[in-house]
Amino acid sequence: MDINFLNNAFKDALPEQIANQKQTDPEFEADNRPIRRMHLNECAYLPSPKVFEAIKEHAPRIHRYPDLHWNEITHALSNYTGMAQNRIVMGNGSDEAIVAAGRITLDTGSEMLASMPSFPSYYKNAIVNGAKLLTTGIQKNGAIDVDLMLSRITNKTKLVFAATPNNPTGGVLGNEDVEKLVEKVPDTALLILDEAYYEFTKYSGAENQLNIMKKRKGPWAVFRTFSKAYGLAGLRVGYILCGSEEVYAGFQLARSTFNVNILAQVAACAALKDERHMQDIVSKTIVERQRIYDGLISLGCRPYPSEANFISAFTPLMAKKIKEDLAKERILISQVNAVGFEKCIRITVGKKADTKAFLYEMTKILAQ
After folding, report:
1. For site-directed labelling of 265, which of 70, 145, 230, 247 has its Cα 20 to 30 A away?
2. Mean pLDDT score, 115-142
3. What are the respective helix, strand and coil percentages of the chain, to the nearest 5?
4. CA 54, CA 8: separation in Å to the nearest integer?
5. Lowest-confidence region among 24-28, 30-34, 133-137, 263-267
6. Hey, how many other C-beta atoms are within 10 angstroms of the C-beta on 147?
7. Rounded CA gap, 176 and 174, in Å?
8. Cβ–Cβ < 8 Å for 162, 119
9. What pLDDT, on a 0 to 100 scale, did the predictor assign at position 21?
């Protein structure tokens, strides 16, 4: 793939609060209507009250460095995930984990493999580390095409990213697909299962695929985050479940020293203690997700079935036009930046009022 094309793709995929100039336009800011942030896959709901209590309690400590070993939160995560505490590495969101995966595996002459479309940060790993990027497609349900992915692996492939649910399409890998990855990705490659939306699939009754990953002989890691179902996106707390001492040591070497701040650590601990609140967020999100899905179908769009807090859909119009027209009404969405997806939009699930506003404006746009 041409590197200039990739650079342009990354420019198009910049976070929209930076790329969308309308948000800094005085006229845009003077509009008193609410800005509906349906573009960054954030949580629409506030985190648990326990989070705010913990932040208030520990705010007087912010003149000190945070625990560089994250003892309290990794202990809590060990209980939550069943992984040993000395196999858990914390990150400044999942993004730090993604960057670290490239730093410990890739160099000039190596290859990195991911699906297209998927999370753009994966692709950046190949570019900044001088590796060759290999991409594969997705299945009709929006999940990664594992068979195609496995067919592209060579003896130079050192890093494989598999997101489930896949962002931006929302499809989840079945257990058989994960088992194929576990068995057939060579031991010379680090296999990453990115479960940023794990709590949503857990709520729907899916089997914990971490148990399948534990069967792998070669190197592996699972990425998760507090940004989605726990509502802590602004605090940046992600974590890595490492399959071996060597993988753990690699991620420890690649991360920053004080990478998760004091308030983020205590907030994550507090969030884990209030599972009922997290489940309430997930259940409310699923209700609105279904309303958006049904509404898009009624408008003649083709949405992917999603197991995350977003939905992507093919529309009759170009995605760029829809995104721009919605922005005029202060509704921010994303477009899918991949060849063949020029008419595909991605909508972050919000609250009931967000759903209503989005579908109302979509009706008007598609009727033009």
Report:
1. 247
2. 94
3. 45, 15, 40
4. 42
5. 24-28
6. 12
7. 5
8. no
9. 41
Sequence-distant (6+) residues with CB within 8 A of 317 are 343, 365, 366
Residue 41 has pLDDT above 70, yes or no: yes
SS3 145: coil
Look at the chain and count its residues.
368
For residue 335, list its beta bridge partners.
345
Sheet containing 88-91, strands listed edge to edge, beginning at the edge strand earlier in sequence: 88-91, 238-242, 220-225, 190-194, 157-163, 111-115, 132-136
The number of angstroms, rounded, from the C-alpha of 139 to the middle of its chain's C-alpha atoms is: 19
- Residues 153 and 147: their CA atoms lie apart, in Å, by 11
- Determine the Cα–Cα distance for residues 190 and 199; give it in Å rounded to an integer: 24
CB 184 within 8 A of CB 148: no
What CATH number is given for 3-46+276-366 in this structure?
Answer: 3.90.1150.10
Q: What is the DSSP string of 233-274?
A: GGG--EEEEESSHHHHHHHHHHS-TT-S-HHHHHHHHHHHT-
Beta strand pairing status for 310-314 and 331-332? unpaired
C-alpha distance from residue 248 to each of 87, 138, 303, 306 (Å): 6, 30, 38, 31
Pairwise pLDDT comparison (206 vs 76), residue with the higher score: 76
| Chain region(s) in the chain for CATH 3.40.640.10 | 49-272
Which tens digits make up the pLDDT trace of 325-366?
Answer: 999 999 999 999 999 999 999 999 999 999 999 999 999 999
The DSSP line for 8-36 is HHHHHTS-HHHH-GGGGSHHHHH--SPPE
- Residue pair 308/302 in contact by the 8 Å Cβ criterion: no
Give the right CATH number for 49-272 from 3.40.640.10, 3.40.50.300, 3.30.70.580, 3.30.365.10: 3.40.640.10
Which residue, chain included where needed, has tokens 């489930």?
164
Find how far residue 296's CA is from the centre of its chain. 23
> pLDDT at residue 237 above 50?
yes
Pinpoint the residues of the chain covered by CATH 3.90.1150.10.
3-46+276-366
